[in-house]
């Protein structure tokens, strides 16, 4: 742990939903839910307006609709999220050369490497406020919450305290005063299973965790996680901010002698694999944000589909729910030779050397929300009409597609309906990759 509050954690607020509200004026101030929009879809991000109804990430789309039926349910536009994220990361690198991106909407920044006159609390506080204002400017109005502290762990905890659009600075020497009243679940790696073990041992808060001897925690949780929690309960976290990070994933897959044709069997296998992945993540103290399935068809074509969450998870049930929703959009009628489930975006703020390493490290595939074929009309997709101009898909079905014509630079626009094969209407292609 440093002697100065010089580690900054920035978290863009309700990122996917906020980008949609920015680009769709009629949705500003209204509940927006981004994720799988089918019957078995999963919420990736909910706007704060939707969260007031109890909607959260990893919730099934069916439950989200029951809680907030008047929300706008959108399939997501990964290219827009990636572009906005790149603007933010550039702003962070203008502040310091040491920026460690965790995902599209999160990053650590080493203020000790920034061109600041000193690292006094007042100085880093002013730097954090300027940064938040700059992010607001370059993103077209998005907000970010910032935490500044003497370690990654404390900076991450601090960034959760004043959401949305806030900032918390933890002065050096006050770390334990902040942590002790908090529940143990604020510690990365303490998922439902670990929290239940600690609860049965009478440990609910970090103060109670701090009072437990290290040997007892090791007996309770194992060497890696027990030692790691003992350290973090004392605010000890020496990890540096690393500008270059290796993306890691934990995955399980199986190859089958006979092609699988029964969708229920496939779903059962994915659920079992997801539970195995979750168990391995918890064993090693990891959580992850991106769930990927791998499907090899009868003709050896290999398909990968991914979905990313706004919050990390190590829960096998959640991973299984997302994996099944990803499978639902694939055509497997010819048979499947291989199935696999993986979670990436690991150890974003967990101390790897404290909690141990993963048994398997693979490069994570690019995180993408599911994008249907171009001639379909998923809700929220960008479109353009020869006469009306640019807009987005309000809804579609029964051979009709309904579009609201507006952009980030216009007021809320008119709504029009067309035949879904109208030649004057087409999907607006995202910018080409470099």
UniProtKB/TrEMBL annotation:
Its cofactor is Mg(2+). Residues 417-434 have a biased composition (Basic and acidic residues). It catalyses: DNA(n) + a 2'-deoxyribonucleoside 5'-triphosphate = DNA(n+1) + diphosphate. CDD domains: PolY_Pol_IV_kappa. The record marks 16 as: Substrate discrimination. PROSITE patterns: UMUC. It is found in: Cytoplasm. The active site is at 106. Mg(2+) binds at residues 11, 105. Its EC number is 2.7.7.7. Pfam families: IMS, IMS_C, IMS_HHH_1. Residues 7-191 form the UmuC domain. It comes from the Bacteria. Residues 406-434 are annotated as: Disordered. Transmembrane segments: none annotated. Binds 2 magnesium ions per subunit. Keywords: Cytoplasm, DNA damage, DNA repair, DNA replication, DNA-binding, DNA-directed DNA polymerase, Magnesium, Metal-binding, Mutator protein, Nucleotidyltransferase, Transferase. Poorly processive, error-prone DNA polymerase involved in untargeted mutagenesis. Copies undamaged DNA at stalled replication forks, which arise in vivo from mismatched or misaligned primer ends. These misaligned primers can be extended by PolIV. Exhibits no 3'-5' exonuclease (proofreading) activity. May be involved in translesional synthesis, in conjunction with the beta clamp from PolIII. Belongs to the DNA polymerase type-Y family. Monomer. This is DNA polymerase IV. It comes from Nocardioides furvisabuli. The lineage of its organism: Bacteria, Bacillati, Actinomycetota, Actinomycetes, Propionibacteriales. The gene is dinB.
């Amino acid at each position: 742990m440093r002697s100065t509050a010089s580690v900054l954690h920035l978290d863009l607020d309700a990122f996917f939903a906020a980008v949609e509200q920015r680009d769709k004026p009629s949705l500003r101030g209204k509940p927006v839910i981004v994720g799988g929009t089918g019957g078995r879809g999963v919420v990736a991000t909910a706007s704060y307006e939707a969260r007031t109804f109890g909607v959260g990430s990893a919730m099934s789309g069916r439950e989200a609709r029951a809680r907030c039926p008047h929300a706008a349910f959108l399939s997501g536009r990964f290219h827009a999220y990636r572009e906005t994220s790149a603007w933010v990361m550039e702003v962070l690198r203008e502040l310091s050369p040491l920026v460690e991106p965790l995902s599209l909407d999160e990053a650590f920044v080493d203020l000790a490497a920034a061109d600041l006159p000193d690292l006094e609390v007042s100085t880093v506080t002013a730097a954090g406020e300027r940064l938040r204002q700059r992010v607001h400017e370059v993103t077209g109005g998005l907000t970010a919450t910032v935490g500044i502290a003497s370690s990654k762990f404390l900076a991450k905890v601090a960034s959760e305290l004043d959401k949305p659009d806030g900032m918390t600075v933890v002065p050096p020497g006050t770390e334990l005063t902040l942590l002790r009243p908090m529940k143990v679940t604020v510690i990365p790696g303490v998922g439902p299973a670990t929290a239940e073990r600690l609860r049965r041992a009478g440990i609910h808060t970090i103060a109670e965790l701090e009072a437990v001897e290290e040997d007892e925690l090791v007996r309770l949780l194992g060497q890696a996680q027990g030692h790691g929690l003992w350290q973090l309960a004392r605010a000890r976290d020496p990890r540096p901010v690393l500008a270059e990070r290796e993306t890691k994933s934990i995955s399980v897959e199986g190859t089958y002698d006979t092609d699988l044709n029964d969708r229920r069997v496939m779903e059962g296998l994915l659920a079992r694999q997801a539970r195995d992945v979750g168990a391995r993540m918890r064993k090693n103290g990891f959580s992850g944000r991106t769930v990927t399935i791998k499907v090899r068809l009868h003709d050896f074509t290999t398909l990968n589909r991914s979905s990313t969450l706004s919050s990390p998870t190590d829960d096998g049930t959640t991973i299984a729910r997302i994996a099944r929703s990803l499978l639902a959009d694939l055509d497997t009628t010819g048979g499947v030779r291989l199935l696999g489930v993986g979670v990436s975006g690991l150890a974003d703020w967990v101390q790897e050397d404290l909690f141990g390493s993963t048994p398997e490290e693979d490069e994570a595939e690019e995180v993408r929300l599911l994008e249907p074929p171009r001639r379909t009309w998923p809700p929220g997709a960008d479109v353009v009409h020869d006469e009306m101009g640019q807009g987005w898909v309000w809804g579609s079905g029964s051979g009709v597609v309904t579009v609201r014509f507006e952009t980030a630079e216009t007021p809320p626009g008119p709504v029009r309906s067309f035949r879904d094969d109208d030649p004057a209407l087409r999907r607006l292609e995202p910018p080409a990759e470099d």
